[in-house]
Write a structure and sequence with these properties.
single chain, alpha+beta, BirA Bifunctional Protein, domain 2, 2 domains, 8-stranded mixed β-sheet, two-stranded antiparallel sheet, 11 helices, about 40% helix, about 20% strand, rod-shaped, binds 3,4-dihydroxyphenylalanine
Length: about 350
Amino acid sequence: MTDLTALEADLIGQIDAAADVAALEAIRVAALGKSGSISGLLKSLGGMSPDERREVGPKINGLRDAVAAAIAARKTTLEDAELDKKLAAEALDLSLPAVPRRKGSVHPTMQTMDEMVAIFADMGFAVAEGPDIEDDFHNFTALNFPEKHPAREMHDTFFFNRKEDGERMLLRTHTSPVQVRTMMSQQPPIRIIAPGRTYRCDSDATHTPMFHQVEGLVIDKAIHMGHLKWTLETFLARFFETDSVTTRFRPHHFPFTEPSAETDVQCDRSGGELKIGQGSDWLEILGCGMVHPNVLRACGIDPTVYQGFAFGMGVDRLAMLKYGMPDLRDMFAGDTRWLSHYGFSAFAAPSQAAGLS
Ligand code: DAH
C-alpha cells in the first residue's frame, strides 16, 4: 500500500513549487486525472475487503480533498500573481519621456532660420516681427514705392478685397515692412533682423507662393557700406561654416535703398557640389543697400542725422544651398519621407556655442 502521508507531502511540495498555472495543471492531471496517482488509489478501493475499505477509504478521500484544495489555493495565488505582473507591465507612467521614435522633425527652413537668428543675435541684433497681412503703406508707400509706379508690379502681390473705405490689405511681399514698423516705433540706434513668411503670386521650380525671408536693418549716425559688407561677410562665413567668404556687390535697384546692390558669394560648383569660399563662380544670395532718405523720412527719422543699411535674403534658398536640397517645391510638399531625410532633431537647436548644424 502506498504511503499516503508521503504521497501527500510530495504532491503538496510539487503544488507549492509550481511556477505557473500550466505547471500546476500538469500536477493536477498527474494526481487527479483519469490515470492519476490518486485516481488509481481510489480505483483500488474496489478490490479491497469491506473492513480495509472502511479504514483506507476516508484516508484516500481525505488525500484527494487536501490535494484538490491545495491546487485550488495555489491556482488562485498564481493567477493573482500573473494578473499583477500583467498590470505592472501595462502600467502607464506619464512622467516617462516620450518614446524616442523620431517621427517629427524640425523643417530645414525653420532650422536655417534658427541658425540665422543665432548668428545675428551673437552680433548684437534683436529680432523684430510684423504681421503677415499688411497694408499698402507699410509694404510699399513708406518703402518709397511711388504710387501707381510699376515698381509695385515687381512683386506679384496677393491683394484682399477692398474694404468699405477703399483700402486694400495684402499679404506682405517681403519682410521689409518690418523695417518701417521698427523705425516708426523706436528711436535709433536700431539693429534688428526680421525673420518671417512672405507671399507672392508665383510658382515654379525656384518660386513658391509662400516663402521665408530674413530682413536686416541697422540705423545709427555713422553707419556706412563698409559696415554692411563686414556684417554680410561675417554672417555668410559663419552660416556656411567656412573661414572666410568673398562677396561681390553688383549695382541693382530697390526703391527703399540708395545705393542698392545684389550680393554674390564666391563659390566653386565643379564636381557637382557647391563649395562656398573658394572657386571662380558667383552665387547671388541677397539684396541690400543704404536705407533711402525717403524711407527714413516716412518713418519719422531725420536723414540729415541718421543713416543706415538694410538687407534681405531668402531663407528657403539659403537652406537649399547649405543642405543640398535640389528643388524648392519639395520643401513645401509635406512629404514625410523628405522630412525625415532632411529634417532636424528638435533637440539640435542651433547656437554659436553648441554648433550651428
Ligand atoms: N525686399 C527685397 C525683396 O524682397 C529684399 C531686400 C533688398 C531687402 C534690399 C532689403 C534691401 O532690406 O535693402 O526682394
